[in-house]
Design goal:
The structure is a single chain. By secondary structure, this protein is an alpha/beta fold. The protein has two domains: 175 residues, Nucleotidyltransferase, domain 5 (2-Layer Sandwich); 37 residues, no CATH class. The chain is 38% helix and 16% strand. The chain is built from nine helices and eight strands. The strands form two sheets. Strands 1, 2, 3, 4, 5 and 6 form a six-stranded mixed sheet that branches. The radius of gyration is 22 Å and the shape is elongated. The protein starts with a strand and ends with a helix.
Length: 235
């Protein structure tokens, strides 16, 4: 499934009270790899940004005066998002704004055209309970370089979040070798037959066993005691 990492910048914090989207940034992942097929829009919100919002994104009202309105780019954006899993940090905020923009032009909510929404903030809270889980905090924790980020920008934030998401989900999730293009694009995936190999059995030493147990304990704490192995131990 295509994954689209999405971020928005807005004139303020409340779509219901009239705030609007001023910038949308989207980054595409295929097979958990950046494709470079990104989308980026600046939008005329038909109103000024709040002073506090200006301090966050630094996009002046004057800069946005000649930019297209949301209605102009809606079809292009929806076609790009169609059928994808959309990954957003604090998804209810961005989805709420997108849905309000679509409502204003008489269109169905964005969730009608996408496969699912994944909230990376909720993922981070489950993995790192009690810790700061802002995008900047996660970049520091997961060693994602955000040194070029002085102000919030939708496309830059989406690019950073793509790296954060891959690290949050522990990198590659399949033991396959990618030989260029994806299989759907005419490429091939190498499958190695190991049946002819006599593989040695290497048992964990005491230090490795202790480290493994510590990792299981941390995962169990993050899932609030709902891990399968802990439940099985108590049966």
């Amino acid at each position: 499934m295509r994954q689209i990492v999405l971020d928005t910048e807005t004139t303020g914090l409340s779509a219901e009270n009239g705030d609007r989207i001023i910038e949308i940034g989207c980054v595409e992942l295929l097979g958990r790899k950046l494709t470079g097929n990104n989308k980026h829009f600046y939008l005329n919100p038909e109103r000024d940004s709040h002073e506090d919002a200006l301090k966050v994104h630094g996009i002046s009202n004057e800069f946005l005066r000649d930019k297209p309105k949301f209605a102009v780019i809606a079809d292009e954006l929806l076609a790009y998002l169609e059928g994808a899993e959309v990954i957003i940090h604090n998804a209810p905020f961005d989805i709420g704004f997108l849905n309000k923009e679509l409502e204003l032009i008489g269109r169905p909510p964005v969730t009608a055209c996408i496969a699912k929404v994944t909230d990376s903030l909720m993922m981070a809270k489950e993995l790192f309970p009690g810790k700061r889980n802002s995008l900047d905090a996660l970049c520091d924790r997961l060693e994602v370089d955000n040194s070029g980020r002085t102000l919030h920008g939708a496309l830059l934030d989406a690019e950073l979040l793509a790296d954060v998401y891959i690290n949050l989900t522990r990198g590659q999730n399949a033991l396959v070798m990618d030989l260029g293009n994806t299989a759907g694009d005419g490429g091939s995936i190498a499958v190695m037959d190991l049946s002819g190999f006599d593989l040695p059995l290497l048992r964990a030493n005491e230090q490795e066993t202790a480290a493994h147990e510590l990792l299981l304990t941390d995962i169990d704490k993050a899932s609030k005691g709902k891990t399968v192995w802990r439940v099985a131990e108590n049966v």
